């Protein structure tokens, strides 16, 4: 196990973490500020991926595909917000869970009706399809480097928006004490719509960016929603900073578990046991992290609400 | 007796599933499909294959009117079991087929066997039904492990001295890698088990890169395989050959991955360019009707209906004589799209396995191209455990 291997896995972990962050950022804002559990966040991710894949194939432009995917998903999110979510804000979590699971089913069937049941092709842009050489001897996929850069840019943009604009101040106020913000004259409904659509845009961006390196298919959002939920629980619900730190932690620990645990156990244990234990431990590593954080800081690393 | 028949007729009429022209009792086939759920894409292939066969036979089996009761069970084994029971008790089916996954096949098997309904698998070939739990009413199209055994021989013949093998961490994943190890003679450099439904494979790919194997064998069904292959090629490891069972390299995967999957070698008991008359007719008809190449799933389900047709003809329509019916099924008196085959003692076929390689065909389309026969007349490893 040499330095380059460790560095490569570090990059992998950061990349996976940033990807989770794109999804978790929207989720944590919606959950934290609106106190609304939107399980259909993964469906917005799926819609973004499908739109991007189709537009990319038709137009040949990756950037246009991303723009259309984000804009299209935002329009869809606006409809969902007006027609469904507004009726749910004041309901209890069970109603929200039931209604948004219903949305997942509708979204899955709509995608099946429009694009068919088989996974569709999401092309990689030619200028990002090959590896680039890092540190002289490490060929690293250029697409993944782009993902890291994109993730960092989004994180920076969100940081500026949330911490250095008036809008961000209102969003933070809503997250930390909604009732007080209402009393101070903030039109919380408008903030809700804005946050929901912002979250949808981020989910669509994540979907559009993930399409070329994953299967664009029905239900793709459900598989990634689980680690995203783990991220927002670790980070503290409603906190973008928390989501960022937690996403990187989860990405690094998950990757480290898969990369280093099995070879390490091979040295110490008989091969059959090591194989079983290594892959088993690697797949629960992020849940162990979550349990540990919850035991020490029950409301997450950076709770938005004091 | 008359009374009973009248009520069934009334029930059937009220459900609107009996056409006016039918005089005798039609033959009923229960088809449990995965139209939604985790295997929806494969389920649609299964349905399309069955419908093509029905069309070819003019809605008859062995010249007798047939009803195909097609119902979606969403890939849920429990729901499959309920559906099978409904088929048996209410519809009194004469044949059963359809589910994509082994767990669904295992769930519906016992009820069907107890009711003496022949279950012609249109895909899964679980080891249980090939070995200790074998049953005269079950007919497989292949045994799960045989694809991997063929891949092991392929890796031997290609001269790969060592390999990294990778599968999801669940029982079927271990079975499939076990099948590969049964025939592969080279060194297994590393055996990697991943999470079920894993999205990101960067860590595993880095491990493969540092091992520098001669080849990688992957059993990663569905989306997992698509994710892995896309990321593997993106990481610049195109020089390490990928070997997979045919499921991970069929038309559905090719359509989703594109050029990245070119040169992937895979094993199957059928190929769309297999040279026999029945297959040529099937592939042409399928392409005319659906405007795409069929997958192995469509070929299998088409074959299953053809097998029913032949058996009904052989028993002269007397499907109630179940002993004679399963004997006729075992004879397999039809021209299979996979070419010649015969059933072994456990009702799993003894048949050829082929190597296919993904590449551009004469029309420039990316598709599987038949390379050679890798295992002639191969039988599964469980047949000795079957006491039937």
What order do the helices and strands come in, and which of them pair?
The complex is a heterodimer of chains A (306) and B (388).
Chain A: H1 3-34, H2 41-59, H3 62-83, H4 93-115, E1 131-134, E2 138-141, H5 142-164, H6 166-176, H7 178-183, H8 188-210, H9 220-235, H10 240-268, H11 271-296
Antiparallel strand pairs in A: 1-2
Chain B: H1 2-14, E1 27-33, H2 40-56, E2 60-61, E3 64-72, H3 77-91, E4 95-97, H4 102-114, E5 119-120, H5 127-130, E6 138-139, H6 144-157, E7 162-168, H7 171-183, E8 187-194, H8 202-211, E9 215-218, H9 223-234, E10 242-245, H10 251-257, E11 265-268, H11 277-290, H12 296-314, H13 322-331, E12 342-343, E13 349-360, E14 366-378
Parallel strand pairs in B: 1-3, 1-4, 5-6, 7-8, 7-9, 9-10, 10-11
Antiparallel strand pairs in B: 2-3, 11-13, 12-13, 13-14
Give a description of the structure.
The complex is a heterodimer of chains A (306) and B (388). Chain A has 306 residues and is mainly alpha-helical. Chain A is built from 11 helices and 2 strands; from the N terminus they run ααααββααααααα. Chain A has a single domain (3-124, 144-296), classed as ABC transporter involved in vitamin B12 uptake, BtuC, CATH 1.10.3470. Chain A has helices spanning 3-34, 41-59, 62-83, 93-115, 142-164, 166-176, 178-183, 188-210, 220-235, 240-268, 271-296; strands spanning 131-134, 138-141. Chain A has a two-stranded antiparallel sheet. In chain A, a hairpin with a 3-residue loop joins β1 and β2. In chain A, α1 runs parallel beside α5 (142-164), α2 (41-59) packs parallel to α4 (93-115) and α9 (220-235) crosses α10. The model of chain A has no long low-confidence stretch (mean pLDDT 87). Chain B is of the alpha/beta class. Chain B has 2 domains: 2-142 and 274-339, Rossmann fold (3-Layer(aba) Sandwich), CATH 3.40.50.2300; 145-268 and 353-381, 3-Layer(aba) Sandwich (Rossmann fold), CATH 3.40.50. Chain B is 41% helix and 20% strand. Chain B is built from 13 helices and 14 strands. In chain B, a hairpin with a 2-residue loop joins β2 and β3. In chain B, α3 (77-91) packs parallel to α4 and α12 crosses α13. The model of chain B is unreliable at 9-23 (pLDDT under 50). At the A-B interface, α1, α4, β2, α9 and α10 of A face α2, β8, α8, α9 and α10 of B.
């Amino acid at each position: 196990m040499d330095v380059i291997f460790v560095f490569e896995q570090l990059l992998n972990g950061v990349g996976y973490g940033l990807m989770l962050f794109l999804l978790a950022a929207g989720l944590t804002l919606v959950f934290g500020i609106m106190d609304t559990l939107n399980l259909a966040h993964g469906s917005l991710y799926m819609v973004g991926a499908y739109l991007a894949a189709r537009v990319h194939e038709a137009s040949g432009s990756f950037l246009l595909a991303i723009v259309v995917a984000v804009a299209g998903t935002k329009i869809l999110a606006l409809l969902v917000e007006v027609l469904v979510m507004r009726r749910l804000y004041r309901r209890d979590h069970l109603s929200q869970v039931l209604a948004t699971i219903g949305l997942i089913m509708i979204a899955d069937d709509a995608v099946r009706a429009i694009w068919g049941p088989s996974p569709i092709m999401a092309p990689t842009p030619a200028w990002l399809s090959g590896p680039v050489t890092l540190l002289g001897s490490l060929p690293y996929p250029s697409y993944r480097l782009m993902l890291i850069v994109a993730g960092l840019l989004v994180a920076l943009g969100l940081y500026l928006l949330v911490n250095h604009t008036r809008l961000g101040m209102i969003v933070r106020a809503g997250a930390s004490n909604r009732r007080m913000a209402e009393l101070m004259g903030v039109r919380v409904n408008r903030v809700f719509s804005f946050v929901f659509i912002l979250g949808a845009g981020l989910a669509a961006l994540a979907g559009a960016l993930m399409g070329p390196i994953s299967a664009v298919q029905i239900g793709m959002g459900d598989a990634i929603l689980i680690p995203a939920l783990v991220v927002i629980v670790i980070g503290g619900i409603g906190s973008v900073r928390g989501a960022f730190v937690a996403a990187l932690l989860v990405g690094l620990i998950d990757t480290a578990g898969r990369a280093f645990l099995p070879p390490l156990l091979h040295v110490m244990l008989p091969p059959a046991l090591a194989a079983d234990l290594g892959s088993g431990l690697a797949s629960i590593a992020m849940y162990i992290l979550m349990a540990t954080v919850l035991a020490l800081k029950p409301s997450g690393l950076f709770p938005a609400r004091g | 007796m008359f009374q009973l028949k009248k009520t069934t007729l009334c029930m059937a009429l009220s459900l609107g599933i009996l056409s006016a022209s039918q005089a005798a009792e039609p033959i009923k086939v229960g088809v449990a499909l995965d139209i939604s759920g985790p295997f929806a894409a494969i389920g649609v292939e299964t349905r399309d294959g069955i419908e093509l066969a029905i069309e070819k036979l003019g809605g008859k089996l062995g010249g007798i009117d047939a009803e195909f009761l097609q119902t979606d069970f969403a890939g849920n084994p429990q729901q499959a079991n309920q559906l099978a029971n409904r088929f048996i008790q209410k519809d009194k089916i004469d044949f059963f087929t359809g589910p994509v996954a082994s767990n669904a096949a295992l769930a519906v098997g016992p009820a069907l066997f107890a009711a003496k309904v022949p279950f012609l698998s249109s895909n899964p070939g679980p080891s249980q039904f090939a070995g200790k739990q074998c049953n005269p009413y079950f007919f497989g199209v292949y045994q799960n492990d045989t694809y991997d055994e063929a891949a092991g021989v392929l890796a031997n013949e290609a001269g790969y001295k060592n390999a990294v093998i990778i599968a999801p961490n669940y029982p079927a994943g271990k079975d499939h890698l076990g099948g590969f190890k049964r025939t592969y003679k080279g060194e297994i450099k590393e055996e990697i088990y991943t999470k079920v439904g894993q999205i990101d494979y960067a860590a595993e790919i880095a491990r493969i890169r540092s091992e520098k194997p001669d080849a990688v064998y992957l059993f990663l069904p569905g989306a997992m395989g698509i994710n892995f292959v896309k990321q593997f090629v993106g990481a610049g490891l195109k020089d390490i050959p990928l070997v997979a069972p045919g499921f991970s390299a069929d038309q559905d995967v090719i359509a989703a991955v594109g050029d990245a999957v070119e040169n992937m070698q895979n094993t199957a008991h059928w190929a769309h360019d297999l040279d026999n008359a029945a297959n040529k007719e099937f592939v042409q008809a399928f392409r005319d009707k659906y405007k795409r190449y069929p997958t192995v799933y469509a070929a299998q389900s088409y074959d299953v209906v053809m097998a029913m047709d032949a058996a009904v003809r052989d028993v002269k329509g007397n499907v109630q004589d179940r002993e004679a019916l399963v004997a006729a099924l075992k004879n397999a008196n039809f021209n299979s799209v996979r070419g010649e085959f015969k059933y072994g003692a456990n009702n799993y076929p003894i048949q050829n396995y082929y190597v296919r390689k993904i590449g551009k065909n004469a029309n420039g389309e990316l598709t599987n191209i038949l390379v050679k026969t890798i295992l002639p007349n191969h039988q599964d490893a469980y047949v000795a455990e079957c006491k039937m």
